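Forwarding these from the shared drive since the link keeps breaking.
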Amino acid sequence: MAIGSVVALAGGVGGAKLTKGLAEVLESDKLTVVVNTADDFEHLGLYICPDLDTVMYTLCDLNNVETGWGIKSESWNFLEALREIGGETWFSLGDRDLATHIHRTYRMNAKDKLSDITADFCAIMGTDVRILPMTDDPVRTMVDTEEGRIPFQEYFVRLGCSPKVLGFEFEGIQTAVFNPLASKSLKAQDLAAVIICPSNPYVSIAPILSLAGIRDQLRGIAAPIIAVSPIVDGQAIKGPAAKMMRELGYTPSAVSVAQEYKDITDGFVIDSKDAADAGKIEDIGQRVLVTDTIMTSLKVKKSLADNIMDFANEIKVGDN
């Protein structure tokens, strides 16, 4: 049976890994990835899109698998020269990666839309998957901490996530418009599933879901909406999600993540290590898939993607 179209909501390394698996099991024109842009920022006069680039590089097989970010076989001549003249080097910009930021900034200064620039980059770098910024309007994640309000990249990279988190604010979210191309993808007649990737629920997925009208649109979708937990055995697979949860007063667990999405999701995917939590998640109204979710290889990424699509079909059949 042919698989219909799929929309994935993604950010960061976890999102990039799952979208790679989905791209391997779906026809490329059937996958749309809507990516968080609230962690975009301006640095050294350049417009930088960390999540967008991580997803793009991964789907184009250009990513650095060791770091999880940036481009493989990178060189660092620019950063070293910048250090020698006293410039800010807390955010690592490789020489090849720098070309992406410079050309993006050039085009944005010429009033090109981020969606169009990203589409051109994808075509040139080598993926047919549609990668969409969540919005073409500026949105910026601010982290409220005990040390004051800090822009996300400074909290995440420069400060190494060390300040205690009190909350988050997405500046510009009130006036930002959900990407019309993404909205159109969610209305596709052959939509088979919406997948919320195992990305940080607070700083990668929450900005997407905070855009005006998106939760209402998701609630009105007939296709199954499935979220994958980024927390395994009480720990984040990568990044500060578990630390953030503890500081916000939540128990770092798959159950806590499921609570974040319970108003919009039909199914929730947890790792085999958290199988004991399946009943608790079912109690909040979610169907549960227990499987291996730690994506250590392309084989595991593909297997997880296949399992999620089978799960979506089971939910759809069960609802009919």
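-- next protein --
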Amino acid sequence: MKAVRFDDYGALDVLEVREVPVPEPGPGQVLVQVRAAGINPGEAKIREGALRERWPATFPSGQGSDFAGVVEKLGPGVTTAEPGDRVIGWVDTRSSHAEYVVAEAANLARKPSGLPWEIAGAIPVAGFTAWAMVRAVGVRPGDTVVVTGAAGGVGAIAVQLARRNGATVIGLAGPSNHDWLRRHGVLPAAYGEGAAERIRAAAQGARIDAFLDTYGGDYVELALGDLKVSPERVDTIVRFDAAAKYGVKVEGNAAGASAATLAELAGLAAAKELEIPLAQTFPLEEVRVAYAQLAKGHLRGKIVLIP
């Protein structure tokens, strides 16, 4: 089978698509033929070595967590799936950017029949992260919530989930994404210098109750200082240093990952109650091109590989 591999930390040129043996599922596992696999910014940072202290790689390393596909083979003891099942899932073994992946049976949800493969493959990491962030700050009816990177893979889902919880949502994003945010009931504000003033203008005098940071930079300081948001109602998935420094939360993918949450998000997407925006799809062989596009930023939604 074809699978993405890299032998050392580095830039895009360390990524290769190689022929490797099809893996065998062990106890409690299933082999899935991958139809679509999302890519995530954290995977690029791991490959570059930026997160080696937190999440070191073992070489040769694969890549990828998200996937959607068809169950091919069951490992011993699996009773919750059958060959031919169409599923969505995730792995913690950095191995979904491939034609086949071995996953824990407990990490699968059924793919709703009307949900396109590429949308299904984009849900897990971004969906879990957005779900966990909204939960972490306790978004409730009447709140005014700010989301940075509001049209990105995580942000685009987070703004919709916060709206579903009854909050007024202000989304920081580039002007090209403002109409998309408005269509989802989100008040857009441009990022960059003067963002605090634009946020306050969008809030029309309302207090900012919670802040979700998917972008990084100095937005945590803006939330705590300029906007006077309480630390326990600030969550960031970029500024891990801010937890110890300020007492803010850093809950993301790991805090949200569960088959039940995945089934919930997939059901909402299939019912068109939650849009999972797709920035672009690429063949597996063009994995370098896909990550180069991701590195440019300012995307609306997720990039997905199609094996």
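The chain has a mean pLDDT of 96. The chain is about 30% helix and 25% strand.

- D.
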